[in-house]
Design brief:
Sulfite Oxidase, Chain A, domain 2; alpha+beta; 331 residues; 8-stranded mixed β-sheet
Amino acid sequence: MLIRSRDKTEPKSFEITPETGYWSRRDWLRAVGLMGAGLATLKSVPAMALEQGVTWQAMMKTKLANSSKWPSSTSETPTPYKDVVTYNNFYEFGTGKNDPVNNSEGFKVDPWRVKVEGEVAKPGHYTLEDILRPHTFEDRVYRFRCVEAWSMVVPWVGFPLADLIKRFEPTSKAKYVRFETLVDPDRFPAQKFGRSTIPWPYVEGLRMDEALHPLTLMVTGVYGKALLPQSGAPLRLMVPWKYGFKSIKSIVKIQFVEKAPRSTWQQLAAQEYGFYANVNPEVDHPRWSQKRERRLPNSIWDPNWIPTQKFNGYEEQVGPLYAGMNLKTHY
Ligand code: MTE
């Protein structure tokens, strides 16, 4: 991104333990009926989840244990858990790749509210329990491509953003959705006066049809576990055909608006980071090529370059959203 320094603390390939057994272990547990304490618990989930008075922590635990496997996941090897939670971009904790894991110890999710406002019939301050209650979680393995030309394959857990949006009943004037991350210097050290690198809050936005697309996920977990602070706890977006900076973390505001919101990276360098930010090997970043990407884990001896795919390999599903659009000008 705009502020870059070489990360000397990047984990070395020999330090990385792949969680290769992850899917097979879960599948096996499911098969023998042990996952989420078996069928009895599974059947009682909807009723339990709807109950008032269940804490979000309890809700999260039950929903994670009973998540369903999305049938369209990529079969590419997932990036090891260790890399997913130690190699991060989360400027609220600092600009280094290891700053989020190193500076987020003790981060408390409580209290957490999501303010919903703008062109909706049901605005309000929603608790995390309100947000999570009716949704069933899905395990989805997506390719994840950062604008900086590194990529991962991540087993996310979450639910379609469309299902959440529909609950708020957007009006016909709602053409875009704008998201904000929490501003709290007590919880995010880089937001403290004198240490700020970017204007807060971190802001992102999607066109309404992008937000409602079935691939767009409201993420609550990774590798079957609740999101850690460095990954954007308790709620973050995942838009797999767009560069990673669109996937805003630790969301506290969802606004329904008529005009395209100006994202943080547009505010900082509009000529480098556009609103659409669709992964596209045919449109280079002004300072580097987007034709290839370093698939993590990698090392300086084995950078593991692979070709970048248009829309990050999701062209069949999302190409029609951009029919007739000049992707060079709408980058
Ligand atoms: N969200 C907030 N609030 N702050 C950030 O700095 N970084 C973005 C995105 N979401 C960022 C954010 C960028 S640049 C990327 S590549 C992804 O988060 C990184 O997600 P990861 O750390 O889970 O890999």
